[in-house]
Amino acid sequence: MKFNTYLLSLVLMIGFLGINLKAQDTLFLRNSSKVVVKLSEITPTQLKYKRFDNMEGPNYAINKSEVDYVIFSNGLKEQFELSSYNNSNNNTSTQPIINNAPSSQNSNNQIENYGDEQTELKGRIDARRYYTHNGGAIGTGVTSFFCGPVCGLIPAIAINNNEPKDENLGMPAPEKKDYRYKLGYKQEAYKIKRRKNWIAYGVGSVSGIAAAIIIGIALGGI
After folding, report:
1. What's the pTM?
2. Tell me, what DSSP letter sits at residue 100?
3. Fewest CB within a 10 Å sphere: which of 29, 72, 105, 132?
């Protein structure tokens, strides 16, 4: 009885840790270090967050110019080009800046709109309409059909771990869209790509197995 209680506690603890790890965002800084955080806001020039190891602690902000890229909790990667952001405080330190007011201009003195939940939702809706690229799903289906489900897993997993390329997004007038729109569009396109990929894997695997059975019956009847 005591062993069962211990085992149940261990399973619950592992599950809890798994949920928490999945919810974390990771900042990869230009000084080759990384910070595990929970992002609360992304402005045109800064990332605002709480440290994941101190969720009850202060709010932090770090300039985008100091961040190479971020991997969100859903696995999506967002790259930040150094030349695209102007550090208004001329601060080259990689330490987080607490309560630092963000600037809304980039180095070209062009205002970059951040957007809101509605523009992000609009991006997701548009992705369902305009993102039509197969994302490698055809290759997954063909491999699964001719080589079987096990071999088909290789391209399926490889494709599933790569977000869509910008040139394949089909985003209407991307240069005129704000940040939240682009983020919503890319996230939804990534979901669509993964769904197409696994559907192709399933269809190819089932069709290949069915074809092998039919050929086997036909040859056996000759």
Report:
1. 0.58
2. P
3. 132
Determine the angle formed by the axes of helices 117-130 and 179-220, rounding to 10 degrees: 30
Spatial strand order of the sheet with 25-29 comes to 60-63, 46-51, 34-42, 25-29, 67-71, 77-79
Taking every pair of Cα atoms in the chain, the longest distance, rounded to a whole number of angstroms, is: 82
Kind and range of the H or E element at 62? strand 60-63
DSSP 154-185: HHHHHHHTSPPPGGGS--SSGGGS-HHHHHHH
Q: d(Cα 121, Cα 154) in Å, to the nearest integer?
A: 33
**Residue given tokens 């559907």 in the structure block:** 199
Nearest CA among 60, 66, 19, 20 for reference residue 40: 60
Give me the torsion for CA of 128, 133, 138, 141, rounded to 10°. Answer: -20
Low-confidence residues in the chain, pLDDT < 70: 1-23, 83-112, 221-222
CA-based R_g, the chain, Å: 23
> CA-to-CA distance for 94 and 79, rounded, in angstroms?
17
Q: What angle do CA 151, 155, 160 make, to 5 degrees?
A: 135
In the prediction, which pLDDT does 222 show? 59
